[in-house]
């Protein structure tokens, strides 16, 4: 029915429903209840944002831009901010590079962390950004942080969908897609269905309907946001990638377009199991893991399948807490930001360290679509 699925939990399916969706459900004789009042920002018991402003302690586009540039200014030898492309509404998409001798392109393993393909998933901005902040702030005092920064190049793109994020802050908190005008009265392409590997493979894993929340766009990489990630990625030699989403507490790896596991399933599963164990050791919170098509639902044209299909590198989607809609869904409290980051921190450190230990030289077995060139530093923000 093209519904915006949030969760399947305890015998109930939660959706974001438009008035016409309720009519369609009624006509199909599907029983439903409207539970809007149970969830923030509609719940009367919800406290005002502690961090000030309508988005509280969560970052807006401008706040994130300012904080990233402030890190570059405070740690000039370790941090540089790059503008890797523009969104539809001409907002910059920023990448933060963290490395010793950051101005130089050294022969070190490169690891990528992405956030916020889906606009309503605010916590997915905070976790990768806070990881970069942690490495920089602890470089001088923590030997482990120093070792990782000295021996790798960590890249963080915390906000892939800046237009959508701004729309969730100022207009509609549940917005998911970017802000493409589809010229038929609908808006938005699901950026995590717009990547080129198995794009449009089936209408189960993405939709050709512009009104759908999983609308894949007119063609692969039709959106400037996904083009920016593609062009940036293909000019680098990443050894591993994690992209953050919410919610469901899941660690997913390829494939998403099919329920079949890839040939590298043992390696991908081993890394995912270690990530899950490290997370659980912090707060006792359990994340399940497995191939995306088996663990959650089918997707095609998503980031992780594309990164793995293009470069054969370990690539993961981590769906952050909570586990279900009853736990808050997309509305993580401001007080949860630090605890969710802290429980993911050991896994992020491990992920970088793994590729330091298993580093492959540049250009070695990186897939047929990788050009033999590096990122153009002319786009650096100075």
User: What is the helix content?
Assistant: 25-40%
Annotation field: number of helices:
10
Radius of gyration: 20 Å
Q: Which runs of at least 5 residues are low in confidence (pLDDT < 50)? A: 42-48, 366-382
**What is the CATH first-level class name?**
Alpha Beta
* Strand count: 10
CATH topology: Aminopeptidase
The CATH architecture comes to 3-Layer(aba) Sandwich
Largest sheet features? 8 strands, mixed
- Give the DSSP E fraction (strand runs of 2 or more residues): 15-25%
- Look at the helices and sheets and give the structural class: alpha/beta
Distance between the termini: 49 Å
- Widest sheet, order of strands: 3-4-6-5-7-10-8-9
Judging from the principal axes of the Cα atoms, what is the shape? globular
The quaternary structure here is single chain
- SSE order, as H and E? EEHHEEEHHEHHEEHEHHEH
Overall tally of structural domains: 1
Q: Averaged pLDDT, please? A: 88
CATH superfamily: Zn peptidases
Give a structural overview:
This protein is an alpha/beta fold. The chain has a single domain (61-379), classed as Zn peptidases (Aminopeptidase, 3-Layer(aba) Sandwich), CATH 3.40.630.10. The protein is built from 10 helices and 10 strands. Strands 3-4-6-5-7-10-8-9 form an 8-stranded mixed β-sheet, with helices on both faces. Strands 1-2 form a two-stranded antiparallel sheet. A hairpin with a 2-residue loop joins β1 (4-9) and β2. α3 (123-138) packs across α10 (336-357). The radius of gyration is 20 Å and the shape is globular. Mean pLDDT is 88; it is low at 42-48 and 366-382.
